[in-house]
Structures are given as C-alpha cells and as structure tokens.
Write a structure and sequence with these properties.
This protein is an alpha/beta fold and about 220 residues long. Helices cover about 35% and strands about 15% of the residues. It has helices at about 5-20, 50-60, 75-90, 105-115, 145, 155-160, 205-215, and strands at about 35-40, 65, 95-100, 120-125, 170-175, 190-195. A 6-stranded parallel sheet has the order 2-1-3-4-5-6, sandwiched between helices. The longest helix has 18 residues, at about 5-20. It starts with a helix and ends with a helix.
Amino acid sequence: MISPLTYARDYAAALRMAAASLARGGDDYTGGDRAPVVLLPGVYEPWTFLRPLAERIHAAGHPVHVVRELGRNVRPIPESAAIAQRYVDEAGLRGVVLVAHSKGGLIGKHMMLLDDTQGRIDRLVAIATPFGGSRYARYMVDPQLRAFRPTEKTLAMLTANALANARITSIYGEFDTHIPEGCALPGATNIELPVRGHFRVLSDPGVLAAVDAAIGD
C-alpha cells in the first residue's frame, strides 16, 4: 500500500515547481550547437514549469525551444500537436528531440505519428507519460483530465499505433501518483527509476541523468 505521505510529497513538489516557474529570468535558450530540443509540458503546466529542465539541457549545449502558444496546455491533444508541429516547421528545425512531461509525451507521440510530415523529429524523451491512460481519469469531472481515459478516442489511437515507439524513451518512477498503471510503452526504451511521484521525478537526479543520456548528441 502506498503511503499518503507519497502523495503529499508529490503535490508539495508540484507546488514548489509552480512557484519557482514564476521567477523572472532569462528564458531564451535557443543558442547551442547540439541537437535542438523542444519542450512539451503537461496539462495545466505553462512552459515555465519546465524551466529548470530547459536550463540544464541548454547548459549541455542544446538549443532549447519552448512553444508559448500552448499556454497552460489545456487544448485537446491533436490541436496541441498541430500547434507544436507548426512551431517546429516554421523554425526550420531538424533532428529535433522532443522532451516532454506527462500529457506532453502524448502530444509528442501524436506529432511523430501524424503531424511531422517533413520528418523533422528524431525522437521523443517522455517523462511520466500516461501512454496507456490512467484509470483515475474516469472519475474526473474536468474534461481535460477525463481525456486520459484509456478508451478516449485519441488516446486509444495512440496506444494502438506502435510505429513511433522505437524512437521513444519513456522515463518514469516506480510508482506514479497519477498513473498507477505505470508508463511503460511496448517497443520503446523504458527506464524505471527508484523514485515515486508524478512531479518529483522532474527533479530526481537519476531521472535528469536519464534524460541527458536519452537526448544524446
């Protein structure tokens, strides 16, 4: 049985990250000579939620791009994928690595399967992504969260289509407070690490190292 403390720590981490994302500072990370990275945050997460990740990846020499038009990421997955793909296309990016959290990973897979008609995306590094949905979603009143039901049309399509899975690295903890089924994706590179939570994974040293390795050159 999972302790209530696990949930409390995870939501406390989410609050800290949200507060930190409000801090002002330089947010142009597009310089660098390594593979371009595009960040895709989770539902209700502005891109600034992933600012610490952007700074780490940029410090390693990667140009990091954020899609501000996604806002708080509350649009349906296909619409969000179209917005993000338009950014990639208009920026003329090639060899793109998508780095995503939660819903962002579903957006990324949708892009790889349907939106990236010019072959600009190389791979996806997804952190705590509900590739198979979450059984908790059926109890949610919020339609943004009910969209993670395994039977939801878009999610079911993404689950059934494995064409892009070999180009995906799924990184997740041993227990996810939002995704009790886990985040393993058949045919992908799956990396489970000894950390618990949906948000705490974003600051875990092991997870960050796994992201660095998955991004590569």
